[in-house]
């Protein structure tokens, strides 16, 4: 009887891990830009739907990355991470968050506005760091759902 309980518990835990981890595994596959390569050959309605799906997946990835940054900060504050480890992890997580934000910005603008003609160059490292912090603080201020 105890064996059946342990086995069923393992099955339930494995199912939960697979369901919860699926978006994270999908977001980290190499070679994907999140928008799909065939948007130019599709009809405008299908391209808009694909773009909306890409924006949603990028927003989910952004929220997950912010959670990882907050978790690392909490681990550092509670003494689970040394200063050196925290600095390395924080640098990597913020760089990944910036990549997500850079991919999310043109996806939210739409196909006609993403040419970047209104900007001479992209934001500098300090502006990017400030953008990540602003996004993170804005998310922290939102009510929990």
Give an overview of the whole structure.
The N and C termini lie far apart (about 40 Å). About 10% of the residues are buried. The model is unreliable at about 35-40 and about 115-120 (pLDDT under 50). The chain is built from 4 helices and no strands. The chain has helices at about 1-25, 45-75, 85-110, 125-140. The protein is mainly alpha-helical and about 140 residues long. It has a domain at about 45-110 and about 125-135.
Q: What are the key terms here?
A:
single chain, 145 residues, mainly alpha, 4 helices, 72% helix, 0% strand
**C-alpha end-to-end distance:** 39 Å
| Element pattern in H and E | HHHH
Radius of gyration: 19 Å
Work out the strand percent: under 5%
Précis, in short:
This protein is mainly α and 145 residues long. Helix content is 72%, strand content 0%. The protein has 4 helices and no strands.
Could you outline the blueprint of secondary structure elements for this entry?
Blueprint lengths: L1 H26 L16 H34 L5 H27 L15 H17 L4
Helix pairs in contact: 2-3, 3-4
